[in-house]
């Protein structure tokens, strides 16, 4: 538990931001650039500035202090299994524990948002904010930025598996894509990552950590678990939170900004009396405003992982202590900030169409240089590799709701994976498309043993293994969706419908799931929100 920031401590600020993840760090960092604007940023976790966070290889090491480690309710579409939902806790949020893959999604995703009535959210509208955030070492021009706070570059692992993967793509007759964030992202290739000098570059490092001791107008509170939004009538005026054993408050002169993510932003709204009135009253919560869409519209990418044992020397052994080159890799990292310690594990991948008549790719691959079983929680004696395939635009919709009125209890989470038959059939096609890559000579040569799919032959076999093993690829969105319909939670300015001085600035505002990783889009949302807020202050 720490309090950080300028020397003048106050309990009243212009803006109080709840949640120091990708959206929260971005909007707090940008708003506090104006010395005349005071900002408080709260997060329930810690500083996240240890080597386990900053060293990319630390992703392979358990670190519960930075992970909420939520579970889902039993999933009907997954044979009643309970899924795992890791979410970042502490400064940087999920950008402090993710695989650092820098992807924006397809331009049609944002044009679709605009077509739903969200003026100002087309691809042409949001591209400047992607560019503003970005400092891309490898690309520039129409689609990329230089000089932004978020460092983006090619991986520095020097792993020859990239050449093998590209060869396999060619053998499977898939195109090679050099830049997944340019004009067209269809194809396979090597991912860029949010890293700098071989270190993880989270949203906290990009927007907040360098300023915490320099900006007197920025106060950062860690170990601060928000429990309630404070209202005077229908106006949000502050936040109540628990820090240690103390109940504290911070007041907001202008706005309260929620940025706690797709699970906890709707949870805090409901705890504070904003949501479906009947459901709130059932928990003894007084209704500030009946807003039935809060917690609904949950969307996530259902994901299946192929896993293979291998003797290839450039894959990571699940038992890290037995990795012969580990000590040498650490020494190289200390000297050069290169090599194995810089891996994000999901080094290659890309976007493919399962049918040629599709307008945009419908699946994404993440090729991982280790065997990944049950999110890495199940270990195996062999070294090996994995390949994720996820469905980019599922039809299934889930929800988040309160288990009780206890603000420290985890929310109830139902992604409803494979709840729609069309999602199952689309992922069957995705399985077949990915297996086509796995069966190329280049990748077959690396396979010692197929861990889970060797006996999967028919479509029914595929359906069975999908229901047995599909889970999240960590991209939940949509539970405070932006729009003007009856189930919308925020308007296109991200202001919560029906109340004043309250916004949501995180992935929960996405009306539909974008076709790709969600960290860069959430940072974009933070950039655009800060710009809209500053525009209103002028």
Number of DSSP helical runs? 13
How is the main sheet built?
A: 8 strands, mixed
The CATH architecture of the largest domain can be given as: 3-Layer(bba) Sandwich
Q: In what range is the share of β-strand residues?
A: 15-25%
Computed over alpha carbons, the radius of gyration is: 22 Å
- CATH topology title of the largest domain: FAD/NAD(P)-binding domain
Helix and strand content put the structural class at: alpha+beta
Shape: globular
CATH class of the largest domain: Alpha Beta
Low-pLDDT residue intervals, each spanning 5 or more residues: 4-9
Oligomer: single chain
CATH superfamily of the largest domain: FAD/NAD(P)-binding domain
Number of strands: 27
Task: Give the helix level as a range of percent.
Answer: 10-25%
| Mean of pLDDT | 95
Overall tally of domains: 2
Features:
single chain; eight-stranded mixed beta sheet; 24% helix; 538 residues; Cholesterol Oxidase, domain 2; 13 helices; 27 strands; alpha+beta; 2 domains
What does this structure look like?
The longest helix has 19 residues. The two termini are 36 Å apart. The protein is globular. About 1% of the residues have low confidence. With 538 residues, it is an alpha+beta fold. The chain is built from 13 helices and 27 strands. Helix 1 runs parallel beside helix 13. The strands form 7 sheets. Strands 1, 2, 3, 12, 13, 14, 15 and 27 form an 8-stranded mixed sheet that branches. Strands 8, 19, 20, 21, 22, 25 and 26 form a 7-stranded antiparallel sheet that branches. It has 2 domains: 272 residues, FAD/NAD(P)-binding domain (3-Layer(bba) Sandwich); 166 residues, 2-Layer Sandwich (Cholesterol Oxidase, domain 2), CATH 3.30.410.40.
């Amino acid at each position: 538990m720490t309090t950080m920031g300028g020397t003048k401590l106050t309990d009243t600020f212009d803006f109080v931001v709840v949640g120091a993840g990708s959206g929260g760090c971005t909007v707090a960092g940008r708003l506090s650039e104006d010395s005349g604007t005071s900002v408080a940023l709260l997060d329930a976790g810690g500083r996240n500035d240890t080597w386990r966070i900053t060293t990319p290889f630390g992703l392979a090491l358990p670190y519960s202090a930075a992970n909420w480690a939520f579970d889902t309710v039993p999933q009907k579409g997954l044979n009643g299994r309970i899924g795992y939902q890791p979410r970042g806790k502490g400064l940087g949020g999920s950008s402090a524990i993710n695989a650092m893959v820098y992807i924006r999604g397809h331009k049609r995703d944002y044009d679709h948002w605009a077509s739903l009535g969200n003026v100002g959210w087309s691809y042409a509208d949001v591209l400047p904010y992607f560019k503003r955030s970005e400092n891309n070492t490898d690309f520039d021009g129409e689609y990329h930025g230089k000089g932004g706070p978020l460092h983006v570059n090619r991986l520095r692992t020097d792993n020859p598996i990239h050449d093998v993967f590209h060869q396999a793509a060619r053998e499977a007759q898939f195109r090679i894509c050099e830049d997944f964030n340019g004009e067209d992202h269809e194809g396979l290739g090597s991912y860029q990552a949010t890293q700098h000098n071989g270190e993880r570059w989270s949203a906290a490092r990009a927007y907040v950590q360098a300023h915490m001791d320099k900006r007197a107008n920025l106060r950062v509170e860690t170990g601060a678990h928000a429990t309630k939004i404070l209202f005077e009538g229908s106006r949000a005026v502050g936040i109540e939170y628990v820090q240690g054993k103390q109940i504290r408050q911070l007041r907001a002169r202008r706005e309260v900004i929620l940025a706690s993510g797709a699970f906890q932003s709707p949870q805090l709204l409901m705890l504070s009396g904003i949501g479906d009135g009947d459901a709130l009253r059932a928990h003894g919560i007084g209704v500030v405003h009946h807003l039935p869409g809060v917690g609904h519209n949950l969307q996530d990418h259902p994901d299946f992982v192929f896993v293979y044992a291998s003797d290839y020397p450039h894959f990571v052994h699940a038992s890290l202590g037995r990795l012969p080159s580990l000590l040498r890799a650490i020494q190289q990292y200390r000297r050069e900030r290169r090599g194995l310690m810089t891996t994000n594990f999901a080094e290659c991948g890309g976007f493919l169409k399962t049918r040629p008549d599709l307008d945009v790719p419908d699946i994404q691959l993440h090729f991982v240089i280790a065997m990944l079983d049950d999110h890495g929680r199940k270990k195996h004696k062999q070294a090996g590799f994995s390949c994720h395939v996820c469905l980019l635009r599922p039809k299934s919709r889930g929800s988040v709701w309160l288990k009780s009125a206890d603000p420290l209890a985890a929310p109830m989470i139902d992604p409803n994976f494979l709840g729609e038959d069309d999602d199952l059939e689309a992922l069957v096609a995705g399985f077949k498309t990915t297996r086509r890559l796995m069966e190329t000579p280049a990748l077959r040569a690396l396979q010692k043993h197929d861990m889970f799919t060797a006996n999967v032959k028919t479509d029914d076999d595929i359906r069975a293994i999908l229901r047995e093993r599909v889970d999240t690829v960590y991209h939940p969105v949509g539970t405070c969706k932006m729009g003007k319909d009856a189930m919308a939670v925020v308007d296109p300015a991200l202001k919560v419908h029906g109340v004043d001085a309250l916004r949501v600035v995180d992935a929960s505002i996405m009306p539909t799931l974008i076709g790709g990783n969600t960290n860069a889009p959430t940072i974009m949302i933070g950039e655009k929100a800060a710009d809209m807020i500053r525009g209103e202050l002028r």
